[in-house]
Design brief:
The structure holds two protein chains of two kinds. Chain A is about 40% helix and about 25% strand. Chain A is an alpha/beta fold. In chain A, a hairpin with a 2-residue loop joins strand 9 (about 210-215) and strand 10 (about 215-225). Chain B has one domain (about 1-270): ABC transporter involved in vitamin B12 uptake, BtuC (Orthogonal Bundle), CATH 1.10.3470. Chain B is built from eleven helices and two strands; from the N terminus they run ααααβααααβααα. A two-stranded antiparallel sheet of chain B has the order 1-2. In chain B, helix 3 packs across helix 8, helix 5 (about 130-155) crosses helix 6 and helix 6 packs across helix 8. Classes of the chains: A alpha/beta, B mainly alpha.
Chain lengths: ~240, ~280
């Protein structure tokens, strides 16, 4: 292997009190990949993202970002190293305007010019946000809110983006647009995307590879096409 | 008419003090959802330190600067050492902690400087109706309010403060160092509280000098809405003017009672404050 994986976890284990929510998860995502993490409700998908992004310190195991051990680093520091976590529902601040949300995302960048350029790029990518820049973020539709959440993450200049259920509550058409956008971003900028989804069909169509979690442990992994073609996996874990 | 004008001007000058202390309460409540009962004690310690620095250097303004710095340090230190460890405790815990801190600091001030009144200087000439000292009080508080508005509205630091206060976890995911930002909000608020102390202290400073001022400031903060800095300033000025009328037309013995009536009336009729918007924030 020439390059270090963009994101790698080794034996990542997380406890909530006495409950083991994540059990020794090994996962590797190549730079520029679109990687899905699938599983039923409560399988540990969100826990995995929270542990990887520094929101919830793991009990044991390691997190490596481009080969660098970042285990235990808090989320706000990982943002500065290019790891952005978009939580379920987007984590949009509805009390702020659209543009304030985006500006907030860009504050980790140095220099006024770099921030302004990033803002322009995000507006080019999401035209509806430019139209509503001075409006309160609470006035956005679900799809626009998801755009704002992704746009805010892009403002920081990420190398790896973790997305938690971006399709939740969105119409299939909007979901498809968001998936296309992620693929497009990946191929244009080399961004690495880790996508957590309950909606396995949508995610596997967009992703190159996937991990399937079951009760906190890895139940299956491989290229998306293989997982989609494996009747055992389809029936047991993907509900297809 | 002359009497009315005098009472109004005096009311605005003392209202500026209530506004500053109310502002410090509201800024801290906004940032961390804690009503900081130790705020008058921060102002007290700051004023006594100013007294000591002025006595040592002979300069009023050296003491003034020392007071603001001491207020800021007390605020940041309290957030870091007392409030942050209680982040996941019941909402009552930080209230009890700040009440305890109030008593400790008030007692400590009495031990260090004694309970006898100390003669405390005015910043400027205090003679005449609406004296330069009165004008200084009103102008400095209005200036602070304007500067705060600009800070919150137009600067990256203000954006970080708002984000950290509204949704700490989402702010962290955008790279905001929430702990440092909240300590900064406490520091800023407590420096403003120290300003209130410097304005309220003359002519005499005692360990209980700010007790009444604090009651009026709480009335102002509640009247303006605990989450609204501009409500706090408006509430402070309104309470100051109202109490001045009560003192002038009815009698000074009813001043404190009038403040409590304001508090009760607002809480009964519009518990979120006179300037609250209809929509409640989801927590």
């Amino acid at each position: 292997m020439a390059a270090d994986p963009a994101l790698r976890t080794e034996g990542l284990t997380v406890h909530y009190g006495a409950v083991r929510a994540l059990d020794a998860v090994d996962l590797e995502v190549a730079p520029g990949a679109l990687h899905a993490v699938l599983g039923a409700n409560g399988a540990g998908k969100t826990t995995f993202l929270r542990a990887a992004s520094g929101l919830h310190p793991p009990r044991s195991g390691r997190v490596l970002l481009f080969g660098e051990d970042v285990t235990g680093a808090p989320a706000e520091e990982l943002v500065r190293r290019g790891l952005l976590h978009v939580p379920e529902g987007g984590g949009v601040l509805t009390e702020l305007t659209v543009e304030e949300n985006l500006r907030l995302g860009g504050l980790v960048r140095r220099g006024r010019a770099a921030r302004a350029a990033a803002l322009g790029e995000v507006y080019d990518l999401f035209a509806p946000l430019r139209e509503r820049r001075t409006r309160s973020a609470s006035s956005l539709s679900g799809g626009e809110r998801q755009m704002l959440a992704i746009g805010r993450a892009l403002m920081a200049g990420p190398r790896v983006v973790l997305l938690d259920e971006p399709s939740l509550g969105l119409a299939p058409l909007i979901t498809r647009r968001i998936m296309h956008l992620l693929q497009d971003l990946r191929s244009r900028t080399g961004l690495t995307v880790v996508l957590v989804e309950q909606n396995a069909r949508t995610a596997l169509r967009a992703a190159d590879r996937a991990h399937v979690l079951d009760q906190g442990a890895v139940a299956a992994e491989g290229p998306s096409a293989d997982l989609l073609g494996d009747p055992r996996v389809r029936a047991a874990y993907l509900g297809l | 008419m002359q009497h009315f004008a005098d009472l109004t001007l005096n009311g605005l000058a003392s209202g500026a003090v209530y506004a500053a202390l109310a502002l410090s309460l509201v800024l801290i409540y906004q940032a961390t959802r804690v009503l900081n009962f130790a705020q008058p004690a921060f102002a007290l310690v700051s004023a006594y330190l100013a007294y000591a620095v002025t006595a040592a250097t002979g300069s009023y303004w050296a003491g003034f600067a020392a007071a603001l710095a001491a207020g800021g340090l007390l605020g940041a230190g309290t957030e870091r050492l007392l409030i942050r460890p209680l982040r996941n405790a019941s909402p009552l815990s930080p209230i009890i902690a700040t009440l305890g801190l109030l008593m400790v600091l008030q007692g400590a001030v009495g031990m260090v400087w004694g309970n006898e009144p100390l003669s405390f200087a005015y910043p400027l000439d205090y003679r005449g109706r609406f004296s330069p000292a009165d004008a200084f009080a009103l102008a400095s508080v209005l200036l602070v309010a304007l500067a705060l508005f600009a800070l919150y509205r137009f600067t990256p630091a203000g954006l970080r403060m708002r984000a950290a206060a509204i949704r700490p976890e989402a702010a962290r995911l955008s790279g905001v160092r929430v702990g440092a930002v909240l300590a900064g909000a406490w520091a800023l608020a407590s420096a403003i509280g120290a300003l209130a102390g410097m304005l309220a202290a003359p002519p005499f400073l005692t360990p209980n000098a700010f007790d009444a001022v604090f009651v009026f400031a709480i009335a102002a903060a509640v009247a303006g809405g605990l989450e609204n800095p501009f409500g706090a300033v408006a509430g402070g000025l309104a309470v100051g003017v109202l109490l001045s009328y009560v003192t002038g037309y009815v009698g000074p013995e009813l001043t404190a009672l009038a403040a409590l009536v304001v508090l009760l009336t607002v809480l009964a009729l519009k518990p979120d404050g006179l300037f609250s918007r209809a929509a409640a924030r989801k927590v």
